[in-house]
Amino acid sequence: MRSPLVVGNWKMNGTLVEVSSLAGAIAKELKKKPSKASLVLAPPATALVQLNQKIRRSEISLAAQNCHWQDSGAFTGEVSPLMLRDIGCMYVIVGHSERRHIFHETDEMIAKKLVAAIKNKLRPILCVGETLAEREDGLATKVITRQLRIALKQLARNDIRNVEVAYEPIWAIGTGHNAEPKQITEIHGRIRRFLADSFGQSNAKRVRVLYGGSVKPENSNDLAKTSEVDGLLVGGASLKAETFIPVIRCFDSHG
Ligand code: PGA
What we know:
The chain has 255 residues and is an alpha/beta fold. 42% of the residues lie in helices and 14% in strands. Strand 2 (38-42), helix 2 (48-54) and strand 3 (61-64) form a beta-alpha-beta unit.
């Protein structure tokens, strides 16, 4: 019932020429042989307009990596969800751990961004995850439940159907060490239970829960097979077609 989703988060990488050629290579490959997973690309904001033109005739969707919560106003340096929708974005990543930790985004700010994204018909990809210290102290579930509770508190019951949740343990991001399937299944199960308790079983069933953190061709097949994993959020390995294509295809051979 939930079709797999793969998201490439290119973070602050790539000139226009580089980003465009990478997207072109991926689109060409998927045109030759479509993948079972839907693909979303999240390039740097500077490339969104051009990439939208480039992938217009493909099945690929476009995501922004962040947004503000107001439609317009005196917020120097920010981009609004209204503007993102205007240039063809379908998704927006919200609450990535780099935004939380480097740019001090709070759960309350993330809650406002989610509401604003949905109002503007963007699908938010809400990132949650614990630090290594929190995991070692046995606090992983508690931290993730808090992140979900505050971020989603303003959403109406049906709105949750337009949200994707990504579990990204911070200790696994960019470290080369992914979380173990057992750890992922446990947290994803908790996330799903939280969603069912808060938004009702039938709404919760529709929400895709993605895993992110050091996803690469060497581990993506096992991750795709992992129970409760509906998709992947990929950073480093999405920056090269040779490593990203096998990851996109990892769901092709799984039921
Ligand atoms: P990574 O990043 O795949 O390089 O670990 C994932 C992310 O930050 O979304």
